[in-house]
Amino acid sequence: MTDVVLVINSGGRRDAEWLDELADELQTDLREIRGLVVRRATAAAGDGVKSGALEQIGQLVASGGAIGTVAWAIRDIVIRFLDRTRAASVTVKNGDREVTIARPSDGQVDKIVDQLRDLLDDE
User: How far apart, in whole angstroms, are the C-alpha atoms of residue 96 and residue 112?
Assistant: First the structure.
């Protein structure tokens, strides 16, 4: 698998520190995948900055692993992560292609529950 970038969208509800904590959590979760290497994303620093790279808050880079099993595992981990943290979405980017995995809103979940109740109602 080539390097892919995972970008966490907090939904604008929290500050950069919270987004950084989310990145730590997702990084830990993704490291459960055998053969997958996960690190913080960095960007080249601008002129006048002593360090050569700046950390991109809320972004991770993943590489390695067998593509067939890694895709399923990433999906499952991201869905659990979104449910647990209440982040809005995670976008997985590979070059100019991307897929966004979004957490359903509470209203969408409530609507599904109502539809299930109607479906399962014996009367």
Answer: 34
